Amino acid sequence: MKSQQLQKFRLWNAPQQPLNKILFVASGLTAMCCFAGFSLYSALAGNFNAELPIASSATLVGGAIAIILFISAITQMLTKKMDEFHSMKISLLLLSLACGMLFMAQASHSNMGLALSVLFIGIGHGLGAAPAYYFAAKLSAQEGKSSIFSSFLLIGYQGTIWPVLLCSILIDHFGILTAIASFSCLIMMCAVLIFRMLTPQLKQTFREAD
């Protein structure tokens, strides 16, 4: 009996239907990009301390996180009726743009660029996180496996973990601009991959099964 239970236990659970599996991966990567953009800013925000009239980097980081989450929450409330597929695509564009603005803000010490990056990350986070969670919940219900949602979170939370862990190493060895550029390129590459996944056929199949 115990051996059968152990065989049923799996660390990773994904949908079995091919198109559902594609949507699952796209949703997980979108959530990862949302968290990565947010986490990247949180990890690097203190480096702007010398350029802004704020005495403590903790004040800057805490304020930036609060503003991003507030913008994200407002965005989700205002876009509840937006098509989820369109919302994810717009989110990925804004997150990519936010990373570019963050790089430019650090390179040029631009307060305006910093403010725009916060705005774009907040809106992109709101537009991407909500549909990603929606798709993951729907896929879990369709296939009757709640563990699918856990696997989705396993993908998404990688975006929270790695920027914080690796940014300090990249900054120490290569500088802050290299750290921002590296993670920005990864986010943009994921965005391109997700765009290729979100095909009209995938959307039609999901709507028919919904």
Q: How would you describe this structure to a colleague?
A:
It is a single chain. This protein is mainly alpha-helical and 210 residues long. The protein has nine helices and no strands. The chain has helices at residues 2-8, 18-44, 57-78, 84-108, 111-143, 147-156, 158-174, 176-197, 200-209. Helix 2 packs antiparallel against helix 3 and helix 2 (18-44) packs across helix 7. The longest helix is centred in the middle third of the chain and has 33 residues, at 111-143.
Question: What topology does this entry show?
Answer:
Elements: H1 2-8, H2 18-44, H3 57-78, H4 84-108, H5 111-143, H6 147-156, H7 158-174, H8 176-197, H9 200-209
Helix pairs in contact: 2-3, 2-4, 2-5, 2-6, 2-7, 2-8, 3-5, 4-5, 4-8, 5-6, 7-8
Low-confidence parts lasting 5 or more residues at pLDDT below 50? 1-7, 51-55
> How would you characterize the largest beta sheet?
none
Q: What fraction, in percent, of the residue positions are helical?
A: over 70%
Helix/strand order: HHHHHHHHH
Strand percentage, roughly? Answer: under 5%
Distance between the termini: 36 Å
Count of strand segments: 0
Average of pLDDT? 83
Shape descriptor reads globular
- CA-atom Rg in angstroms: 18 Å
Structural class: mainly alpha
Number of DSSP helical runs: 9
